[in-house]
Amino acid sequence: MRTILLVALVIAGCGGGLQPEPICAPSLVGLCGTLRFQGTIPDNTDDVFIAAYATFPQTCTDLIANRRPLIPGSVPYTDSVADYSVEPPPATYHWVVAVWKKQGSLTLTPADTALLRVAGYYRDPADTTQSGVVTVSNGPAPGDINFVVDFDNLRPATDFVSCTAQ
Amino acid sequence: MYRAIAALLLVLAPVRAGAQGVVRGTVRDREGAPIASATVAVRGTTLAARTDPAGRFRIVLVPAGRVHLYAAAIAHAAADTVVALTGGDSTTVDFALAAEPLALPPVDVISSRVPHFGERPSTSVANVTPEDIDHRAVATIDEAIAHVSGVQMINGQTNIRGSTGYVQGLNSRVLMTVDGVPMNQGDRGGINWDLLAVDEIESVEVLKGAGSSLYGSAALGGVINLTTRDIPDGFHSTLRLTGGALGDPPHGIWRFRDNTGILGSADVSASYGNDVLGGRISGGDRHSDGYREQDQDDHLHFAAKGRWHTNNTRVDVSGAWASDRYDEPLSWCSRGECDDQGQVYQPFKVDTTELGAHTDSRKAYVTAPTRTTLSPQFAWSARGSWLRTDFTDVRRSTSEYGLSDRYGLAGQIEDRPDSTRTVVVGLEGTFSDVTSDIFGKHTQSEFAAYGQSEQRAGTVRVSGGARVDFLAVDGGSLTAVVSPRIGLSVPTDHHARDGGTLRASIGRGFRSPTMAERFVRTVALGFEVIPNPTLRPETAWSFELGHTSAPLLRTLRLDAALFWTEARDLIEPQVIQITDSTGTHVKIQLQNVVRARMAGLDASVIAAPIAGHLTTTLGYMYLSTRRQLAGDSTSGPLAFRPPHQLTLGADYTLGAAAVGADYRFASRPETIELEGFVDPRRVPMSVLDLRGSWTRGPVELRLLATNVLNYIYNMVPETLAPVRAVTVTAIWSH
User: Fold this and answer.
1) CB–CB of A8 and B648 under 8 A?
2) What is the ipTM of this complex?
3) Residues 566..595 of B with a Cβ closer than 8 Å to A: which?
């Protein structure tokens, strides 16, 4: 009896189970940073999420199909500052963007761009007119991917890519 | 048709007129204590009975002359005796069985489709005994079944040797029967484990592997048969009260409420019976605050059972009704979906947009089985059944409802033409109708005929049979499915009464698509789920080679089985793109797209190193799965199938007190469904339960601590599994 109990306790003690994961935890495979919000939050706001693109999208189809992660998460946007993390697969990303979403259901098709606006993106610290490049590896996550979300300057997809249908 | 049935009866039921008598008596242990639920049978006949709580039994229509009786009980050595019986007279036989923790449990002769009378079946059968249920002080019976080697419960869905996986409650590849009556839901095909209160259930048999040759659809991975308590003679009543507390999150950052969650229940039952009539009523109420945010559960149930017994006929009528209102913590909170305290996820909290989600559910059943023993060699049985399930899912943006009825009729004849052969032939019909805003309004009819024979040839016992099922949806064309099976069992120690047995079997199983799978129209993960009325039945061939050893060193018994299942046309959700005039849309549809293999080793050991005091068990299953999508040459493992599962158990008894421990481990599933669309976090399961009990006269106290280490884990995406709970149960029996 005692042996069985001891074996069980030892085995039970081995696995850690689920653990708290703070934003930018050392175990994170992805990227993380801080968003600073400015402007007035539109009444029809549904969500704000972060997306990463390995290559800069050329079309509305690229904008949806090449988004990582494909299914967007969520970032709290009601405070002036919020930490975020996102878990795209390991790769080098040339555009890390904050996307504002108005109320409505996404369909994972180019038609989604009617619901989405670019609210800000990570910029190259050396040349802030250019988007920054971030490399995600299986090692520690790149932190300090910080940028501004401007609710007063929500830009449609067509400012960045060409769309045949919306 | 009638002529054919009459001819069949004439062939199978030759009149064996002759003097007959009654055998009555008791089954007790060597200390004189009565043994309840022992099986007593007359060898070479269909005659059998089960003892009541006072250990009494009564068998009628026993042929006069030398009568060979057999008695078996769980954890006791079986016994044989021969008595002389005079026609028209009765004789009394009292058995005294020696305690033998390694004894193989007798196979249930009442609700199994094939009477075995203490012989070992050709497939793996695991038993959850009344003691297992009592010791564990569980709230619902699935909590006890989860400790069986090779069985895993994944968020309420039952896996026998990796059969079902997890499919959001839309089907089950395991059939649940109550006293042999199929009880899977008419619409979703799932199992309502809280349909019956634990106090109503006496024992559970788990038949592993494809069982469709006798049980039809859904028995693709196995069958779980619940045997309800019989009504003993005299007046009996029971009061059971349970109270307890739920563990808090182990990390302060996960805290979601200021108080400790509580749970409690109250159950009462009363019965009266005599030789002819008996009846029992029971009812109960259960409440739990839940172990996470939005997890409150309130349950109310009533059950009743009646029996009428004449010389050679027994009629039972039983039914139950249960009502639940439970909150639905649909998915845990990910970053930004709640007050996440700067965490990537909060497993104890839910997405605030899902606050208020709950389900109202009601279910009820009535069954009326009857069995008539026409002669010691021939019996027939019939039953009618009705099962209703009714749910309303209330969500923030919408609500969904479903109402389904499942009506069943069945008849079966059993014949023992001679002492070496048993023949079972049966007909079964089921009609289900569904009315739902997400499944639509549909009907499904199933008609089946089956036959099975067991033949002894020397020491080898061979069984073979087949079942043909005809399925029709909405009155459309019939789909036929044939499910054959053949098996054999060979004793490996001819001299020992309870020696080793080698067994082998191969059989085909199938599962008809549920009406939910065919017709569901809803939204999941933000995508529209569209119906697929053209779904075909899933099918599988199951092979098993197993061995049960004779007791080793008088303290140890091993059982091991190699199993192999080849499944085709498995139904899985697929993400598809549909283009119409408004553009291209992404949708989810269930399709017959998967070929799969499930193979492995299912082994268990029971040891009794201190006879009469300590019993220990160990179960291990290695599961290897391979999944291949139609039209795709790549393959990988099936989702939600942990390759390794381990169960450990120990019970120590000293006089009126007993303590025990159970440990369950399942390795991390290699894959999950819809990977990339849901949070992929998953960890191994590692749960330790402790329990103790103390009995004095009519009062029993039980202490149960589940997940005592408060191990935090999930078995399906974004769904926290139960945390630590400590309960105290007091039972008063009269």
Assistant:
1) yes
2) 0.82
3) 577, 583-586
